[in-house]
Write a structure and sequence with these properties.
Strand order of the largest sheet: 3-2-1-4-5-7-6-8-9
Number of domains: 3
Structural class: alpha/beta
CATH architecture of the largest domain: 3-Layer(aba) Sandwich
CATH class of the largest domain: Alpha Beta
Distance between the termini: 38 Å
Helix content: 25-40%
Number of helices: 15
Oligomer: single chain
Number of strands: 16
Strand content: 15-25%
């Protein structure tokens, strides 16, 4: 979709065509071509494609945005956009500021969230189509009057003198390949150093795979926060200047639970106790395993493995817990024998520190019982091991087909 086609999509004719596309009950990637052929018989081909693509992307965006059915996207911009729950959480840091610059604003997700917190937002992007979509999306949320939209390259435009800024550089190539290094971002992360003398309060959206050493090499000494949503690691954020509140932080959304670095010593190492704990990935990536272990009086089962253990039932949002039934030396035959003795017919296989494929391992077990168990393929005190465990309330769960996860 180009800018002219997008403007046509906003016209009465375009909106009528979009409404028809939105009403298609089975519109999906597999049926898109069939509907496109039909729509092109009645409308401009580019407009027909834009209407169907928008309807399809709106359905996909429903997992990210509460008003997705009124919004506009490109595929790439939707992929890069933060979920609304994340954008709103981040925006709260900017509450003390009267004006925030949203640099590389894309389709406007962060600008919309910021406009719900601060009175004035300047949204900057060099892509005129994304900027036009951002304006329409802001109107869908009723905050367009708080946002000034600027078509410019952020390297030349800068922060517009705003006292605070949020920066969301592209982390994928035009072909969709992920960019792992911060100086490969577009623009590269080093551009932030040019803004700090004027705008010291800067937040940056980063890949959750970011290497903290690369930030240190650029002299960007800030708070590094890792954010998960419903247990899935989504992104990282770098908070500079007055926005920094800690050295490292792990945040779990939507509940908003947060854990920060507190200088805890490394946890002790010992064999599994009664409970095995799998920390939330945000905790692990933030390097806060020691802080969580100190909170729970837990220990690691191996110095190289991010599983914790306790003898008491843990009450924490920062980890999932399983009740340990048995810890075995690793071996397919031994694990199979024990699971069959327990009447197990299906397993969920999880691994950390093991080269084996979980699904392949589950198939090798060839189980026939009715119960279910979770099997952890890992290392215990330096040795390969298999831990058979139950989730709370799982004891009476009937088995389905054996699966790996």
């Amino acid at each position: 979709m180009d800018l002219a086609t997008f403007h046509a999509l906003l016209s009465p004719e375009g909106q009528a065509l979009l409404a028809r596309a939105m009403a298609l009950p089975d519109l999906r990637e597999e049926t898109l071509l069939r509907y496109l052929t039909a729509f092109r018989r009645e409308a401009d081909p580019a407009l027909a494609a834009a209407a169907l693509e928008t309807a399809l992307l709106r359905r996909r965006a429903a997992a990210k945005f509460t008003r997705a059915e009124h919004m506009y996207f490109t595929r790439e911009a939707l992929e890069q956009a933060s979920a609304e729950v994340v954008a709103r959480y981040r925006a709260r840091r900017y509450a003390p500021y009267p004006h925030v610059a949203d640099l590389c604003c894309g389709i406007g997700g962060d600008a919309i969230a910021l406009a719900g917190v601060v009175p004035r937002v300047t949204a900057v992007d060099r892509d005129p189509l994304r900027l036009a979509m951002a304006r329409a999306n802001a109107a869908a949320y009723g905050v367009a009057e708080r946002i000034r939209f600027v078509a410019a390259d952020v390297r030349a435009h800068g922060t517009a003198g705003a006292p605070a800024a949020f920066f969301d550089p592209a982390r994928r190539t035009a072909a969709g390949r992920r960019l792992r290094h911060v100086e490969q971002y577009e623009p590269p992360l080093s551009v932030v150093r040019d803004w700090l003398p004027v705008t010291p309060a800067v937040g940056v959206k980063l890949s959750p795979a970011v290497d903290p050493a690369e930030l240190a090499a650029l002299g960007l000494d800030g708070e590094l926060e890792f954010i998960s949503v419903d247990g899935e690691l989504r992104e990282a954020a770098l908070w500079l200047g007055p926005l920094r509140t800690a050295a490292r932080r792990a945040t779990l959304l939507p509940a908003g639970h947060t854990l920060t670095e507190a200088g805890a010593p490394p946890p002790p190492v010992a064999p599994p106790g009664r409970y095995l704990l799998e920390p939330d990935p945000a905790v692990y990536r933030a390097g806060l395993l020691a802080e969580l272990a100190a909170q729970l009086r837990a220990w690691q089962i191996d110095p190289t493995i991010a599983y914790l253990s306790t003898d008491t039932s843990p009450e924490t949002p920062f980890a999932r817990a399983w009740r340990v039934e048995e810890t075995l030396p690793f071996g397919v035959k031994g694990v199979r024998r024990r699971l069959r003795a327990l009447g197990v017919g299906s397993v969920t296989v999880k691994k950390r520190g093991s080269p084996l494929d979980p699904q392949q391992f589950a198939r090798l077990l060839r189980l026939e019982g009715t119960a279910h168990r979770t099997v952890f393929l890992t290392r215990v005190m330096g040795q390969p091991a298999a831990i058979i465990a139950l989730e709370p309330g799982e004891a009476g769960r009937a088995a389905g087909p054996a699966v790996g996860a």
